[in-house]
Write a structure and sequence with these properties.
single chain, alpha+beta, ATP Synthase, domain 1, nine-stranded mixed β-sheet, 1 helix, about 45% strand, cell membrane
């Protein structure tokens, strides 16, 4: 692999691309903690947790994103990030708050919905069993 001053970064959501461009540095958060990637970093794969990802672009500017859980793959000079939800932000502190309130709250609501669905399924199975017993 040749030495490169930057890398191509693509941030994908299930239905759209949030960002595609050149970056000189990327920082993110995995389940084991924060990490950074430079263009000549060894190939790398990690899960991502709800957090803030920072891209230092090739032109010297900075982009920050609030990301939900997902996956990051770096191969060669290309980094692909796939996440369930993501937002682009201007201010780091407000973006961190958005991640905490939105993504973590959504996860809690999804957990409650799955729990309610499980109770409904169990109730339906119980009623079918009662119907079968009364028919015999």
């Amino acid at each position: 692999m040749s030495m490169a001053p930057d890398m191509t970064v693509t941030l994908r959501l299930p239905m759209a691309t949030l960002f595609e461009g050149r970056a000189a540095r990327l920082t993110g958060v995995a389940p084991t903690g924060a990490f950074g990637i430079l263009p000549n970093h060894v190939d790398f794969v990690t899960a991502l947790v709800p957090s803030v990802m920072t891209l230092h672009l090739a032109d010297g500017s900075e982009e920050i994103f609030g990301l939900d859980e997902g996956l990051l793959v770096k191969k060669g000079h290309k980094v692909s990030v796939a996440v369930l939800r993501g937002v682009r932000g201007d201010d780091l502190s407000s973006l961190q708050q958005t991640v905490k309130t939105s993504f973590v709250q959504m996860d809690e609501e999804e957990r409650q919905a799955r729990s309610a669905l499980s109770r409904l399924e169990a109730d339906m199975v119980r009623r079918f069993a009662e119907l079968q017993r009364s028919a015999v």
